[in-house]
Amino acid sequence: MQKRVRRYFFDFINGQEKWLNDMAKRGYRLKGCGMLTYDFESCQPNAFEYAVIFAGNLTNARAKDYQAYIETMGFRTFTKNIGLKYAFGKVKWRPYGKGFGQIATAPGNYNNELLILEKEQDGQPFELHTDAADQYESVKAVAMVYGWEVMMTAVLFALTFLPAAVNSTIALIWGIRGLLLILGILFGRPMVKSVREAKHLKDESRLYE
Amino acid sequence: MVKTIRDHAKGGALTETTFLVLLAVYQPNHGYGIMQFIDNETNGRVVLGAGTLYGALNTLVKKKWIRLVDSERDNKKKTYVITAIGREKAEEELKRMKAVLKLAASIVKGDGK
Predict the structure, then answer these.
(1) Do A24 and A116 share a structural domain?
(2) Domain count, chain A
(3) Which of residues 45-84 of B touch A (CB under 8 A)?
(4) What is the CATH number of domain B16-108?
(5) ipTM of the predicted structure?
(6) Whether B33 contacts chain A with CB within 8 A
(7) SS3 of residue A85 by DSSP
(8) Residues of B in contact with A49 (CB under 8 A)
(9) How many Å apart are CA B33 and CA B40, to the nearest integer?
(10) DSSP B26-52
(11) Which residues of B touch A53 (CB under 8 A)?
(12) pLDDT tens column, A22-50
């Protein structure tokens, strides 16, 4: 049986991963995904397990190399977007990227910031980063994305107080502020969680590898 | 993905991940083989995650401690082998560990000063 679900995750790592694993527990195996859609096919409940990793800080070439490497390790992979803007023939600056990873292109690594990994359920934990320093780096990269989104939302919120914006109708201006506040909370919660986790891992990495 | 070699500035200590990866490529080996080698040889004490291993391999190639096996360059499954520099680093680490072990044994077992 085929099933298509439309969904968007503000908590794009942990929230999305948990949902995919819940679907797998209910007997749905991921078959493909679009910007807002997930296609599933029926399978035995608990037959597969999913992990979502962030690759949006890598260059396009490095991200493709990483994906190819992951596949040689026996995982099935899917690329997934973080943002919701359709793009073609676009170049975008990503402040949270590393080196040339700060430049995202469409076609290329734009809208392919995440990798969804699938493995058969074998009773072993789905751990991709096992070294404390490595775990810290991967969580820090995610925290930086959330931080960027929260900062952009805060800047937009501040812009609503400019004289030109204040001249708009009160209902419109408060509607926009309310929407931005909700976005700030939606991105802010996973940001706080990631920052706390990164801090904990940094402390651990001083003691353990 | 990340730099996993955190050489101690003076002591030259390698991370366990780095040292084990170097040992795993004394014979040409690919990613999955390296993971299996480390898992087997440490009796499951160290199980490297694929992401951590990817970072370690890239850093080691960049530092020229390991290299891609020529005939395997175009293969999707990349095979790596240790270089002369890598062997030198592994030997230095073994020497360092022996010295640390000797010190620890003399103190922990009670025959230290």
Answers:
(1) yes
(2) 2
(3) 47-52, 54-56, 76-78
(4) 1.10.10.10
(5) 0.77
(6) no
(7) coil
(8) none
(9) 10
(10) SS-EEHHHHHHHHHHHTTTS----HHH
(11) 51
(12) 999 999 999 999 989 999 999 999 999 99
